[in-house]
Structures are given as structure tokens and as C-alpha cells.
């Protein structure tokens, strides 16, 4: 992957910040902070790869980036493609077509992926209950979250959590 100077500077800063956070004395939410920095780094790298691999209409890319920006803030509140398409003043079908061209995934797959990633983060790095996670991610019940999570990962939230608790570091 080839990075331009700006991308190198951005990633160097993030990696140094991540490392500095890692070497500080441990505190209660330190794993959440480390996970957040890793998430930002992964998003930055994915964007570099995306712009390297795909050549497409710049207007579509701008809409795709706006969608991703909105999603990164609103995924806890909104789970439907129509919510995001309304914010972008385009049809849900158009948003899915843009997402498919830019990322290879439909808008719904991207939204679900964001929600699953956040649920996994909560399950791995916090001790809050599945019910609390469901509430934070705007599901009506823990059962609804469990069904969604299992549908998207083939494993229940509790089984997923137990899988990581058994791993020794």
C-alpha cells in the first residue's frame, strides 16, 4: 500500500498516540480508548486502500464518504438504509448502488457491519450486559439484539463474549 505524505503523517500520529496510550499506567476504560484508536487507524487504512483500488465517479465517492461519516456518528440511532438516504437526499436504492460500487457491500451490509463491530467491542472490552448493549445500540430488547447479532455472526452475544474471556493474553 502506497501512502502519500499526508496519510503517512496522519497514521504516524495515530500510531504514536496509540502507543503512548498503551504504555500509560492502566485505568478503567483504557481498553475502550485503545480499541477506538485502532478503529480509527483501520478506517484510515481502508480509505487508502479504497482510493487505491477503485476508480469511480467523484460525486458518488463524495456521497459514499458522507454516508460513512454520518454512519460513524448515527449508527446507534439509525439502522435502516432509508434513514441515511433521507439525510443524503437520495433514494435507498441509489445509496446501496453507490456503496456497492465504492466498497463492494450494500448500504445495509455496511450499516449492519458497523453495528456488529460496536456490539463486539462492547462484548470484548466491557462488562456491561447484553441488555445494556441493546439499549446503547437502539434495539428494543436484548432478544432483538441477540437475534440480529447471531444472524450476522452465527454466534450469540454471550457465546461471543465467553470466547474472548477464555483467551489468555
What does this structure look like?
The protein has helices at 5-23, 30-53, 58-74, 81-88, 92-103, 107-125, 130-136, 142-153, 157-165. The protein has a domain at 1-53. The protein is built from nine helices and no strands. The protein is mainly alpha-helical and 169 residues long.
Number of strands: 0
Helical segment tally? 9
Report the structural category: mainly alpha
Major pleated sheet: none
Estimated radius of gyration? 18 Å
The low-pLDDT segments are none
What is the terminal-to-terminal distance? 30 Å
Tertiary shape: flat
Helix content: over 70%
Q: What fraction strand?
A: under 5%
Topology order in helix (H) and strand (E) letters = HHHHHHHHH
Quaternary structure state of the chains depicted? single chain
Mean pLDDT: 89
Observed structural traits:
169 residues, mainly alpha, 0% strand
Summarize the structure.
This protein has 169 residues and is mainly α. Helix content is 75%, strand content 0%.
Amino acid at each position: 500500500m502506497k501512502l502519500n505524505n499526508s496519510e503517512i503523517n496522519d497514521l504516524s500520529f495515530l500510531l504514536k498516540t496509540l502507543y503512548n496510550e498503551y504504555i500509560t499506567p492502566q485505568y478503567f476504560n483504557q481498553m475502550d480508548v485503545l480499541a477506538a484508536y485502532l478503529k480509527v487507524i483501520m478506517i484510515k487504512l481502508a480509505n487508502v486502500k479504497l482510493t487505491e483500488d477503485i476508480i469511480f465517479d467523484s460525486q458518488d465517492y463524495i456521497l459514499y464518504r458522507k454516508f460513512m461519516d454520518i454512519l460513524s456518528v448515527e449508527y446507534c440511532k439509525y439502522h435502516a438504509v432509508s434513514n441515511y438516504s433521507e439525510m443524503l437526499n437520495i433514494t435507498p436504492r441509489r445509496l446501496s448502488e453507490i456503496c456497492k460500487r465504492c466498497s463492494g457491500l450494500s448500504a445495509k451490509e455496511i450499516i449492519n457491519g458497523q453495528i456488529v463491530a460496536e456490539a463486539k467491542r462492547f462484548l470484548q472490552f466491557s462488562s456491561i450486559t447484553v441488555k445494556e448493549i441493546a439499549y446503547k445500540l437502539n434495539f428494543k430488547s436484548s432478544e432483538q439484539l441477540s437475534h440480529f447479532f447471531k444472524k450476522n455472526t452465527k454466534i450469540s452475544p454471550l457465546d461471543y463474549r465467553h470466547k474472548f474471556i477464555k483467551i489468555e493474553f
